[in-house]
Amino acid sequence: VYFYSGGDEFKPELLKGKRTIVTGASTGIGEQMAYHLAQMGSHVLITARTEEKLKKVVAKCLELGAPSAHYIAGSMDDMVFAESVVKKAENLFGGLDMLILNHIGDSYYNFFNGDIKSVRKLMEINFLSYVTMTVAALPMLKDTNGSIVVVSSIAGKIGVPFVVPYSATKFALDGFFSSLRQEFILKDVNVSITLCIISFINTEKALKAVGDVLSYPAAPKEECALEIIKGGVLRQWEMYYKYEHTRIPLLFRDWAPQLLSSFMRSGLNVENLKGSNHSLY
Ligand SMILES: NC(=O)C1=CN([C@@H]2O[C@H](COP(=O)(O)OP(=O)(O)OC[C@H]3O[C@@H](n4cnc5c(N)ncnc54)[C@H](OP(=O)(O)O)[C@@H]3O)[C@@H](O)[C@H]2O)C=CC1
Ligand SMILES: CC(C)CCC[C@@H](C)[C@H]1CC[C@H]2[C@@H]3C(=O)C=C4C[C@@H](O)CC[C@]4(C)[C@H]3CC[C@]12C
Q1: Given the CA of residue 155, which atom of ligand 2 is nearest to it?
Q2: Do β-strands 238-241 and 147-151 pair in parallel, antiparallel, or remain unpaired?
Q3: What pLDDT was estimated at residue 211?
Q4: What is the C-alpha to C-alpha distance for residues 160 and 157, in angstroms, rounded to an integer?
Q5: pTM higher than 0.90 for the full model?
Q6: Residue 201 C-alpha to ligand 1 middle, in angstroms?
Q7: Are 50 and 25 in contact (CB under 8 A)?
Q8: Which spans are transmembrane here (predicted)?
Q9: Which residue in the list 35, 166, 240, 241 is annotated as catalytic?
Q10: CA dihedral 166, 171, 174, 177 (to 10 degrees)
């Protein structure tokens, strides 16, 4: 099994001339994915809310060698907007090879505050918009035997404290896309789905959010972005980054969940949590 499954090798040429969408690409891992794709010669359409940042990312993509780079600004809590991103790709490129779903709405790193409205909103941004874009892009992806890449988290596989609503949206993605993958196989739909399980990454937002609470190393966003793209191109069902911070905890999850839980809690400095968000308890 090891030898026969390890045969595929990633080559940057595989992305030359491919037409891609990257969501949440104004900052963080999404921005880095856009740069990698540009360097490898892909056409990119990026999206997020902040137009000024998107403009700068597009300019850098063109500098790096993207044959074309465009942006569309808007918020993913609006499903009409989510759909319009896919339509824009159709108008610009006349087709699509890879849909990279990466954006997330703002979420706090603290005890669950009991605010249901914000849970619903996060579900719309982090989950429903992914579903909406997938449905809209499916006809084009079927034509090209393309790929869907869904960026999730180790917090979408294991219950981690202080990210209650966020974790729920990421678990939902696993349920939806892993089930959909099975149906694609049954229906001979040759569109790959790669679920990305990633651990703590050094993006500005993440470092700011966890502050002094986590004594845990953050991995580099540039490398993470490249590994996500590789996973998508190689049509892997799941990709893990960093390997040791995702695969090993996942091994413990099913066999020693309480040991894993206590290990996770032991690395936290709860007294350093920001503000007083403890109203529910
Ligand atoms: N960083 C980490 O430690 C980890 C990250 N991940 C996952 O990696 C992915 C990228 O994370 P990361 O790079 O850290 O995130 P960032 O916070 O750096 O970037 C989030 C992106 O989403 C955009 N965005 C935010 N709100 C909305 C909205 N309402 N509508 C549309 N776009 C929006 C932001 O741009 P704008 O504000 O302009 O809209 C930005 O481009 C996410 O799926 C995350 O869950 C997983 C595990 C760990
Ligand atoms: C399994 C254990 C051994 C390791 C636990 C690692 C924990 C502490 C890591 C793994 C996933 C990480 C979170 C994440 O996925 C995304 C974000 C969004 C960002 O905007 C703010 C930071 C946040 C909440 C990360 C916080 C730290 C988390 C919980």
Answers
A1: 11
A2: unpaired
A3: 81
A4: 9
A5: yes
A6: 11
A7: no
A8: none
A9: 166
A10: -70
